[in-house]
Hints:
This protein has helices at residues 16-28, 35-42, 47-53, 58-71, 78-85, 87-97, 101-113, 123-127, 134-149, 156-173; strands spanning 6-9, 12-15. The relative contact order is 0.09. By secondary structure, the protein is mainly alpha-helical.
Amino acid sequence: xxxxxxxxxxxxxxxxxxxxxxxxxxxxxxxxxxxxxxxxxxxxxxxxxxxxxxxxxxxxxxxxxxxxxxxxxxxxxxxxxxxxxxxxxxxxxxxxxxxxxxxxxxxxxxxxxxxxxxxxxxxxxxxxxxxxxxxxxxxxxxxxxxxxxxxxxxxxxxxxxxxxxxxxxxxxxx
Length: 174
């Protein structure tokens, strides 16, 4: 039956079953429709091709590409995605990926309760550790990801300690 519900339109595979699942989540959570997320739900593959065929704006194409990026991996930690992509985009991407209402509800609740956080360190903190250029960004990302995985709880001092540990590990590995 699923094969009957898949078709091709403007050279793009259209997945009606995935679209219906997505719409059921949208309805369950009483969400206002997101046209680009709906397009992404319809087109699991070749989303860029669909976007160009429909002459989407650059911003709309960027959103479609972000959905591709987020849904190309198994999304695990809502905090991670909300921090880097914002809670709204994360919620829509999660609803594109999940298959059941229980998991969708988990992501919905996590995204709706998320409040933006500010990472306690700055690039200058990493410069003071002797880092330069791209090394600052690499180490900052490592420490930021750790901070997120700890549910944003580590203090500035704990983040600095982790930055120093990260620096020792990377220096030793070279």
